[in-house]
């Protein structure tokens, strides 16, 4: 076969399911968030948990930039990383403009770029907190400061905005900022031999290298990654040398080095430790550096961390982070359902990690996890109206416990309008508006389908344009149809992912069944393609009961219900109180139907189950001698997990007794 050069160009999503989300972000979420950032929204900003140190009176994010730029007077308000809310909003705007151009939105974003240029200091430094409040502490409290974290988010936003609008000012600000960082960090004498407490700059510098071709950006990204964990006294020495008694962030000093993934060099880390978002951001950068630098050691380390997450430390919804204390991983198989964290940002970060692993190697297990997180724990982070959000995505909720148990104050029953720490809403927005880039990856002459989403995509194979139209009613239907549009007959491979949950599958090419072997989760169709060729993929959408590893103590004698990529849950609004009394016996019959009138149109599952009988003689005793339990028949209604808490507040349960 002749060697083929394959490149991907435009990807246009026309999918009914995902276009709704992208349009909601564009028309509702982005304008709403802009009002919030300008303190113009009449909303209640909630603390994400019971903690009086959380600033939640207002956002003040745009005002901070105006003060830093000298346009207004005043003090910085909000978290030290408040700038990143604006940057992630800007990145979502960039992707949204590529999806559907909006001149007024572009003018608004251009004005933000102008403001950032005025706020940037002469040496390229850009951070409103330290410019306004403590310029003498620049880069001197990196465990807490989030300076490089914020810088990374701006660089990512600038790259996206430059690609969308060709705004060179946005990219110029980013390069000046990167130059400033390069002047301060590195192995050379007089530079800081250290790293930020929250990984992000490493991701951004790798992207900046790809856009500009400047090798020093790639080298600086490598420096930050490889330096992490080398000197385990770095943070302590900075704190000792700091002359201020004022913490940058209250309470950060109590966390161990593993919280920052700084307990050992990255190549020696083999378990997912610490703050979940930081961990997956680090892994995202590691996977990208492995790809860009052909770094086999880095890739091997990525695989170890990946395996530990998905095999021992990930929820069935794709959520990660088992404890509110440090928003962190804990231990293998420690996956409590009612006190977990499962931050929306962590699942977004897991998708970033999965995607960069797919760039390294075509393995369906990465796309499986990407899909799992996307359809479950990511979009559960946003209400159907696009104006209410979850920071935490629990798998079990009882409202009274969330209200009265301090250890469950982070487990919300309904989505708040905004948070004091508002990292999740704009992170969700930038992911959803850039969803088109996750559908395909390319290796050699093979186009790998990672997600089944209705779209049309243009590829170029040896300067010959190829258009692939994908049509589907996923995730409600397992039928997916690909049509090839080409001027001349062209040879390449089309790889179709067979998801982990599809126990059977059928593939047809122009009506003829294709008998192909599964290779790392994909069936690869290598052939010479003609104009009008059609490929049909039929996936098994049978309702399934899933059990957890026996070492997961929280899920013993329980099952979770899944259909296609969607995890289902029971809500009080459909099933009454005390959901823990429900039981799904082994021989239960399931019925699925699509309900256009429910939650904007979702698939609903009914199952003939049982409810443990509760008699009044229990009212005056807490314990009694064990005796035969009695059950009553009950028709249980299950809805997709991602849309729970969009109706009457109440209990929710993913894992049900069997």
TrEMBL record:
GO terms for molecular function: hydrolase activity. Residues 10-436 form the Non-reducing end beta-L-arabinofuranosidase-like GH127 catalytic domain. Residues 544-656 form the Non-reducing end beta-L-arabinofuranosidase-like GH127 C-terminal domain. Residues 447-541 form the Non-reducing end beta-L-arabinofuranosidase-like GH127 middle domain. InterPro entries: 6-hairpin_glycosidase_sf, 6hp_glycosidase-like_sf, Beta-AFase-like, Beta-AFase-like_GH127_C, Beta-AFase-like_GH127_cat, Beta-AFase-like_GH127_middle. It comes from the Bacteria. Keywords: Hydrolase. The keyword GTP-binding does not apply. The keyword Hydrolase applies. This is Glycoside hydrolase family 127 protein. It comes from Gracilibacillus salinarum.
